[in-house]
């Protein structure tokens, strides 16, 4: 790969703008200067590596990279070799790791897409901690965001979750999230930088790809600004999320929930006193938060999602004073109404399977 | 049309359930007993007429109907004749009216779909007032809701507007909104009740139809519960809407906005004092509300929608203390930042065109 990194001053205006816009996002979130880049070798993450490398001196960034081989495709070794070479030419230290996606899918009883996502996130976070990086950079752009919104609509997500993945989500930062993917391809082309085409991106075996290749083009034909709308929806979701986080934190300060794991089962109890003071919009969100808290403690990740319908049914049972009703959430978590309280708890099986569940 | 209305007891369980579920919705919203049914003669509104007629004695309903000929299709007179005959056999008084959709489109400078919607709503509301009905029943079901959500996503709507049309919206009630359309067809078939197929429903000239015939089937194939998810999303939107309505009403009670029309231009001024006290999530919604208020006063309808992007830009200008910035909304309404205030006002043209604009 005969490739040498251009300087910011050598870029054409559009590419320089891409680098500066990305830098602005990195600065906006004050994530610190040490960054772990997740690089598949596809166009998006290759562009991310280049932009980060170009901007590193100005922003005083310390860069590391990680490439995860999902063990699902024959050409994986070549992808890994490409990424190793790219990172070497960019002087970015790179870790190549292998994920047993099929095994995670078997243990978590989920599809390969979901298993890959869960395993990838866990591996990146582990490596981030090991090398002491401040954050993980992912190369998702606004077409990924559109796909995610549709997937969440299909899955029955609530607001603000339905607005898709966040630009900043814990230690994860997605500086390209509100940008059009074409900007990244244009940048790579004008830098004469190659990338790897992931053949599985064309496979209609995966939901995300079916949406990408069939639904999204139809919607984009109706309104080429769809991606922009998606970004705005996500921005609005962040504003609402911030509001609800503050609102609920305030309520929990006055009436804290009760965490318990004495019986070997993790639980979070929301008191009747707390629930009585909350408007319905906040109650539904406190349920969700309790469920996520449990998932975090039991499985060490924040990937749990609740179906709106289940939250509504739970709240209806609580509001009508129906005790002893049980509602199941994904991932082995259930909620039980008890007098005026609502108790979230893990089921035993998942506690025993804790370590398997964490990846 | 040899058709006689069955009694509730004569229906099969699924059809009886449809009638009882519909009755439950009518009762839930306490809309009063006098109802104006909007009937196109298509399957959905024909089913609505039947269900309403079957349940009328039990619920003590007074029914009237209105059929609006949009003047766009050659077979319009036959549709009108069908509806007249249907209503006669159901003993529902029916008004047949004609809408000049093309003229509204020309005056409002919008597409035929939008013009039809605006004109239809205005005409129904006028007739409702004339006959003193409590509410207007529309036959939208959850497939319509899905289409509406996609249309709003394309249009860049905010939350909760993006969750689609409401089940109860002012004087309008949509008792079928959370129901699957197949239930309505099944009901008509088992009652041996005919309906009119609107040939324009198949035309890909209209955005709604393109979504219906191309995008929705793809999404429904991924998850047949899409319609259910849409209904849940709309329910959640209602919960949030209720919260924000209360929150903002409270804020406006302490720091009311100022309405003015002394200069021939209608305006709504949001004071810096009001805005300073609101979190961003509430500020964005107060802007939207002010815009709708103006639209209501200028054009007598609540159909105005604001693009999220414009609201964000307006708020950014306000928050940075940038005075004198102007932001344009659809329908001839603009917002201006002025010191710490934000002023919404109509442009002159639309005031002069007020009467044309009202339909």
Find the structural class of chain A using helix and strand composition.
alpha/beta
How many distinct helices of chain A?
Answer: 14
Estimate the strand proportion of chain A: 5-15%
- Average residue-wise pLDDT of chain A: 90
Oligomeric state of the chains present here: homodimer
Structure summary, number of beta strands of chain A: 11
Largest sheet strand order of chain A: 3-2-1-4-6-5
Overall 3D form of chain A? elongated
Q: Major sheet of chain A: size, sense and barrel closure?
A: 6 strands, mixed
Task: Name the largest protein-protein interface in this structure.
Answer: A-B, 44 and 44 residues
Overall radius of gyration of chain A: 22 Å
List segments of chain A where confidence is low: pLDDT < 50 over at least 5 consecutive residues.
350-359
* SSE order of chain A: HEHEHEHHEHEEHHHEEHHHEEEHH
Would you kindly provide a written description of the structure presented here, covering whatever features stand out?
With 359 residues, the first copy, chain A, is an alpha/beta fold. In chain A, 53% of the residues lie in helices and 13% in strands. In chain A, the strands form two sheets. Chain A has a six-stranded mixed β-sheet, sandwiched between helices. In chain A, strands 7-8-11-10-9 form a five-stranded antiparallel β-sheet. In chain A, strand 9 and strand 10 (333-338) form a beta hairpin. In chain A, helix 1 packs across helix 2. The first copy, chain A, is elongated.
